[in-house]
Amino acid sequence: PDVDLAPVSKKGLAHPARPGAGTVGKKVMIRANHFLVNVADNNLFHYDVSINPESKSRAVNREVLSELIKLHGKTSLGGKLPAYDGRKSLYTAGSLPFESEEFSVTLVDPEKKDKEKAEREYKITIRIAGRTDLYHLQQFLKGRQRDMPQETIQVLDVVLRESPSWNYVTVSRSFFSTTFGHRGDIGEGLECWRGYYQSLRPTQMGLSLNIDISATSFFKPVTVVQFVLEFLNLRDTSRPLTDRDRVKIKKALRGVRVETNHQEDQIRRYKITGITPVPMSQLIFPVDERGTRMSVVQYFMQRYKYNLQYTSWPCLQSGSDARPVYLPMEACKIVEGQRYSKKLNDKQVTNILRATCQRPQQREQSIREMVLHNKYAEDKFAQEFGINVCSDLVSVPARVLPPPMLRYHDSGKEKTCAPSVGQWNMINKKMINGGIIDNWACVSFSRMRPEEVHRFCCDLIQMCNMTGMSVNPRPLVDNRSASPNHIENALRDVYRRTTEMLGKQGHEKQLQLLIVILPEVSGSYGMHVSSGQSPSTFSWISVDLCVCRV
C-alpha cells in the first residue's frame, strides 16, 4: 500500500523523510482490515489497583472490581465507569472523587456448600498514578511530535478490550467464543473455536483498530472418560491404562478444571493436579479421623449410591499430595472454555486450518460480521471514553508491482523468463550461476531399503546438475540408515564421520548439504527437525538441511 499501516516507532528518532509514493506498477485501491477510530477530547486518569488477598487470575480480579462498581460506582466512584486491565491498572475518563481510597467487598462462591467457606472478603486499594490528555496523541498522529504517547494508546486499547474481556475467552490479544460460528472437532478430544484478534494502532491515517479472524484449540466439554477414549484412541474400556497412557493423560489434563456430576443437587469444580499411580479398584484412603480405610469404589457406593464402572482406570487427583482429592474419571466433566495450549499434532493442525481457511472475500466478510457482532457503537465503555469505531474497512491506494524477470540458460543461450501468478517452468532451462556442492551426506529414518535410498540420492543429484548446479555425484560418507527413535545419535554419527573424512583429506571445510529422509509416521518433522528437539545436536549444522518425504 502507498499508506503505512504498520505501527509507528515509539522511539523519539528523527526518521528520514519518505521521498514520495511509488510510481512503478498498476494503481489499485485495496481494503485493509483496519477500522478508523475517533476519540473525544477527554482527560484520562490512571489509577493503581491492589487487591488483598492477591489473585493471579484476571477473572477473579475482574469479579472483585465488578462487585466494587456495583456497590460503590454511583457514590464513591462518582458514577464513573472505569476500564480495568485485570491486573494493576484502572483507567477513567475524568477523575475519581479521591486520590486514594480503600474498599471492601465480599464474593460468594456458589459452588461451595459451606456458606462460611464460600464467602471471601477482599480489600481493594485504588490510588492515583497519573493523568494524560489526547493532545500529545493528536500531535503525534499529525507528525508534529516524535515521541509516541504509548500510555494514552494503552488506555484506549484497554477500554476497547473491556467488554470482550467479560463476554469472551481471552487469549493474549485475541477473543474466542462459540457464538462466532460452528466449533469444529479437530480430533483427540479437542475442538477449534473461532474468534478475532484486536489491537489499536497509530497509522498515517490516524488511530486504527486492527481486526482479524483467528482460531485456536479448546478442550471439548465432555466427560473425562470420553476425552481419554478420544485422546488415546481407545475402544476397549475394560483393560487398564498402560504407564505410557497414564503419563500422556497426566500431561494433557494437568491444570484442567473439571466439574463433578455424581451429585444432582451440587456441582463442585476442581483443578486436576495429577493421576493416581494405581487403578481405582486398588485405591484405598482414610475416610475419618479414626483411620477407617475404604476404597474409592466402596466410598462412592456407600456415600452417593453411585456404582463406578471404570474401576481398572486410575483416578484424577486434585488438591495437594498431603491432602489429595480423588475423582473418578466417569464422575467428572471438563469445564467448557479451556484452551489447549500444548503442541498440536499434524492431523490437528490440518483440521484447524481446514476449518478456518478462507478466500480473501470470505475473510473480509467474516471480519465485517465480527465488527458488526461486537457493536462498538453500543459499547458502554467506548461511550464512556468517547471512542467511536468506524464500521467500514479502510481503503488505501496501492500498486501491483510487475514480477521480476528471471534469467536462464535455454539451449545454450541466455534468455529471460517472466513468471505468471508466481509460477514459471524450468524444463530445459539451467541456472546461470548454479551453486557448487562438493561435500554432502544423507541419513534416512524411513523404511526404505539402502538401494532405494541410493537411487533417490542419485536421481536428486542428477536433477541438480541438469538445472545448472555442480554437485559431486558421490556422498562424502556412505548413506546412513537409522531408527527414528535414535535421531540424535544418528546425526552425531554423521557429524563425527564427515569431520574425520574431511580432516583426512586436509580440508577445513564442513559438510555443505545434509539430506534427511523422514520416517513414514506423521509428526516427525515438527517433533524432531523443525523444532530442534536437541539444540546441542543441531548447533553444528551450518549446512543446508534438505528434509524429504519419499
TrEMBL record:
Gene Ontology terms describing biological process: regulatory ncRNA-mediated gene silencing
GO MF, one example: RNA binding
Bilayer-spanning residue ranges: none
Keyword set includes Cell cycle: no
Sorted UniProt keywords: RNA-mediated gene silencing
Every PAZ domain range: 223-336
UniProt superkingdom: Eukaryota
Positions of region (Disordered): 1-20
Name this protein carries in UniProt: PAZ domain-containing protein
Database matches in Gene3D superfamilies: 3.40.50.2300, paz domain
Sequence similarity: Belongs to the argonaute family. Ago subfamily.
Alphabetized Pfam families for the sequence: ArgoL1, ArgoL2, ArgoMid, ArgoN, PAZ
Keyword check for DNA repair: no
